[in-house]
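Summary: Need help interpreting a holo structure output

Steps to reproduce:
1. Submit the protein chain below together with the SMILES for flavin-adenine dinucleotide.
2. Request a joint structure prediction with the ligand placed.
3. Inspect the structure token block that comes back.

Expected: a single structure record containing both the chain and the bound molecule.
Actual: see attached output.

Input attached:
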Amino acid sequence: MTRRFDAVVIGAGQAGPAMAGRFAGAGKSVAVVERERVGGTCVNVGCTPTKTLVASAYAAHLARRAADYGVSAGPVGVDFAAVRARMLAIVGDKRAGLESWLAGMPTCALIRGHARFVAPHAVEVGGETLEAEQIFINVGARAAIPDFPGLDRVRVLTNTSLLDLDALPRHLVVVGGSYIGLEFAQVFRRLGAEVTVIEKAPRLVAREDPDVSEAIRAILEAEGIAVRCDAECIRFAPQGTDVEVGVDCRGGAPTVVGSHVLLAVGRKPNTDDLGLDAAGVAVDGRGFIVVDDALRTSVPHIFALGDCNGRGAFTHTAYNDYEIVAANLFDGATRKVTDRIPAYALYVDPPLGRVGLSEADAKARGHVVRVGKRPMTRVARAIEKGETQGFIKVVVDRDSDAILGAAILGVGGDEAIHGVIEAMAAGRTATDYTRVVAIHPTVSELVPTVFGALDQPC
Ligand SMILES: Cc1cc2nc3c(=O)[nH]c(=O)nc-3n(C[C@H](O)[C@H](O)[C@H](O)COP(=O)(O)OP(=O)(O)OC[C@H]3O[C@@H](n4cnc5c(N)ncnc54)[C@H](O)[C@@H]3O)c2cc1C
Ligand SMILES: NC(=O)c1ccc[n+]([C@@H]2O[C@H](COP(=O)([O-])OP(=O)(O)OC[C@H]3O[C@@H](n4cnc5c(N)ncnc54)[C@H](O)[C@@H]3O)[C@@H](O)[C@H]2O)c1
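--- attached output ---
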């Protein structure tokens, strides 16, 4: 059987449902094909569940520190089943909300199953062919599982299967010390597990400046997380019911034994089983769909949005991909993905808010930079809250006074960074920022001060 639509959207992640909504809102027919769960990675196994866990872990951490605030809370216990139940309830609500939103659109059909191209204008789902004028690929990514020696002899977890555990691991070994690895590492440590992080690079979150990496490492180690960097030749072997991880670091023991292992070494686009050849859609060497500045693939009526195009790996970048494509198709705009200023947060606690270039990247691109930095120990709000780890750092182009980037590692850093994001989006200079009158007492109020104290020792 063949059904015809104005548009077919493959994947109900962060861009697809919104795109379907735009078509349906314009009275056009649209099919959304989803092979797993509506809401994709973010809602089901990414942002939403992890941030509920971060919240539970924070509550446990603060309860243990209650005496610091003059509060006696008694012994702190963690009910892992209740933590999970809270997580599942919030995830379930969010997914159900999206499902009912899609179901409420009269010209939108949600079709369950795996979609595969059979021609440039046609995909097949469960024996049925769906034809459309335009096709939008929003298939996301999954955990990369490299072919480590011994992997076939042990059980390892990914961000997806870790969420299925119904008991707290005794000792979680996290391979990969970046976003996914570090968020889970701190969560499980705070919930009561022993945790070791193993990272191949010489430092954690190595795409950040060294001072950021060092501060994050210090925060995690202070909570009892063991960190092993420079780990070459990861290999696995069973040891009873435990798993031995060979690490070959420059220093320290050559193996770490844990009850559970999480692999968090990057993501792989879900493009290998999509029949892209049948449509003539080109991918790069890592399987990401090649797109132009307007997110068109090598086939003009097919667009790729979200993690599968390699232009971003965040929920807000996937959604922004939708905004760009929709504005260009429906509103006559000429928006481009290269206009996007990179911004993101790492949800360790305290969080790292980031925008634009790091100091190292700015220098590598030839900027002569001025840097402003202030530790959280000198931020009134952080002192009052009793959470003084981290710092505010801004990077400015010496010649143009342009704001190049910022990092706020500290309490409220994920929110306070938005002042800088918005200033950069509005094209404001560092001098402009020094004239902002911010609310006292906030972490944000120190950002103008930092811009006004460039090149000064912190
Ligand atoms: C543990 C974790 C935590 C994260 N935390 C954050 C965070 O705090 N903030 C943030 O911004 N980002 C976070 N991310 C990243 C974020 O989840 C992704 O960037 C985002 O979900 C990408 O959205 P997407 O629409 O591109 O793809 P996805 O959300 O992955 O959706 C793709 C959908 O396509 C479906 N699909 C795939 N192939 C097919 C097919 N052939 N046929 C039919 N359906 C198909 C999949 O089942 C899936 O539902 C996190 C990711 C992880 C793993
Ligand atoms: N807060 C957020 O917004 C958030 C949270 C989680 C995930 N995400 C998204 O998910 C994506 C994937 O996250 P990720 O942390 O899996 O990937 P990543 O690419 O950010 O980091 C992978 C880490 O694993 C290390 N690594 C690679 N091979 C290794 C090996 N053999 N042994 C030890 N370490 C090794 C890398 O050096 C790197 O530090 C991120 O790029 C991010 O966009 C975002």
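--- end attachment ---

Reviewer comment: The pocket of nicotinamide-adenine-dinucleotide (ligand 2) is lined by residues 175-181, 183, 198-201, 206, 231, 234, 264-267, 313-314, 344-347 (CB under 6 Å). The longest strand covers residues 128-137.
Status: needs-info
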